[in-house]
Amino acid sequence: MVKNIAVIRGDGIGPEIVDQAIKVLDKVAEVYGHTFNYTDVDMGGCAVDKYGDPLPESELNKCLQSDSVLLGAVGGDKWNSVPGNMRPEKGLLRLRAGMGVYSNNRPAKIWRQLADASPLKKSIVDNGIDFIIVRELIGGIYFGEHKTEGDVATDILVYSEAEIERIGRIGFETAKKRNKKLCSVEKSNVLDSSRLWKKVMHRLASEYPDVELSDMLVDNCAMQIVKNPAQFDVIVTENMFGDILSDEASQITGSIGMIPSSSLGATSCGLYEPIHGSAPDIAGQDMANPIGTILSAAMMLRFSFDMPAEADAIENAVSAYLDDGYRTADIMSDGMKLVGCKQCGELIISNLKKA
Ligand code: IPM
Ligand code: MG
Hints:
The chain is α/β, with parallel strands linked by helices. 41% of the residues lie in helices and 19% in strands. The chain is built from twelve helices and 14 strands. It has helices at 14-32, 45-51, 57-64, 88-99, 122-125, 161-176, 192-205, 218-227, 239-252, 291-304, 308-323, 341-351, and strands spanning 2-10, 35-40, 68-73, 103-109, 130-136, 146-149, 152-155, 181-186, 212-217, 234-237, 262-264, 270-272, 326-327, 337-338. It has a ten-stranded mixed β-sheet with strand order 2-1-3-12-11-4-5-10-8-9, with helices on both faces. The chain has a two-stranded antiparallel sheet with strand order 6-7. A two-stranded parallel sheet has the order 13-14. Strand 1 (2-10), helix 1 (14-32) and strand 2 (35-40) form a beta-alpha-beta unit. Helix 8 (218-227) packs parallel to helix 9. The longest helix has 19 residues, at 14-32. The protein is globular. 47% of the residues are buried. The mean pLDDT is 97. It binds 3-isopropylmalic acid and magnesium ion (MG). 3-isopropylmalic acid (IPM) binds at residues 75, 89, 92, 243, 275.
C-alpha cells in the first residue's frame, strides 16, 4: 500500500522523537512492502518563528490532504510571552479542530517489564492497569470564548447534545470491544454541561445493553485512578477532564514518555501523537524516550491504515527492546542498560520482524 503521511516535528524534543518513529515506519515499509511518503509540516513555536503563525492555512491543508498526521510535540518557554491566540499550542488546537478529530484515545497500560517504574504500591500494580481514556477533543472550555478585560479573565465551557453523543458513542463502541465497562466522568454536582453529559450518556446506554455504564465525578476519578486503577476499562470524558486525567493515568504506568494517542473524527485521516509535551529541558541531548511516538505510529497503522499485523510488529519490537533491559533515562532503574533516543530507535528497528 502507498500512504502519504504529514509529519509535524514541532518543538523541543519533537524532531528527535519523530525521527525515530519515521525510521521505524521505514523499516515496516521495507518488511511489508509498503510505501510511506512523508510531507513535512511546520506547526507550533517553529512556525511562529518562521511565519508569525503557529499553523498557517497552507500547513493545515497539507495535513488535510494526507492519509494521516504524525506529530511530535509543540511549545516551550521561549513562546510564553506571545499572545494567547498565537501560542504554539493554539496551532495544535487549530489542527485538531481543522481535522475534526473529536475522539482522542489514550491508553493507560502497564508494560510488565516496567511494573517497578510505577509510583504505585506493588499490591495495586499487581491487580493490573489496563484502561483507555476516551477524551472529547474539539469542544468544551478549550474551544469556548477566551477573553481578558482589565483584571477579569473569562473562558467559556460549551457542549451541545450532538457533541456529547458522538463522543459517547465512541466510548460505548470502545468498551464493547474490550471488557464492556464504561465509566462516564463529569462534574454533574456543579456544572450544567456535566448534567447534560450524564443525561446523554444514559440515553445512549439503552442502545448498548451489553455495556455496563457507570458515572463518576471527576475529583473522585482522580482519586480512584491511584487507589484502584484495576476497576477501569474505558473512561469517557470531556476535553479538559480528559487532559488532566490522562496525564495522571500515564504516570501510574511508569512514564508519560511511553504513552501514544490517536485522534479520529468522521474519516480515516487521524492525528497520532505521544501525550507528553516538548520537554525543552532535555531537547537536543539525545535523552528523550521516543516510544510514545513510535507507538503512536503503530496506532496509525492499526486505526487509519488497517494494518494490524504491521502495528503488532512495532509493539512486539518495543516489547523485545524492554525485555532486553534497555531503558531511556525516564524509565531507568538499577541493573538496566541506559540508552539515548537514537539508540532506542535503532534497537527497536533491529527487533522488527513480520508479526
Ligand atoms: C495534550 C496537551 C495539549 C492539550 C496542550 C499542549 C494544548 O496537554 O495533548 O494533552 O491540553 O490538549
Ligand atoms: Mg495534556
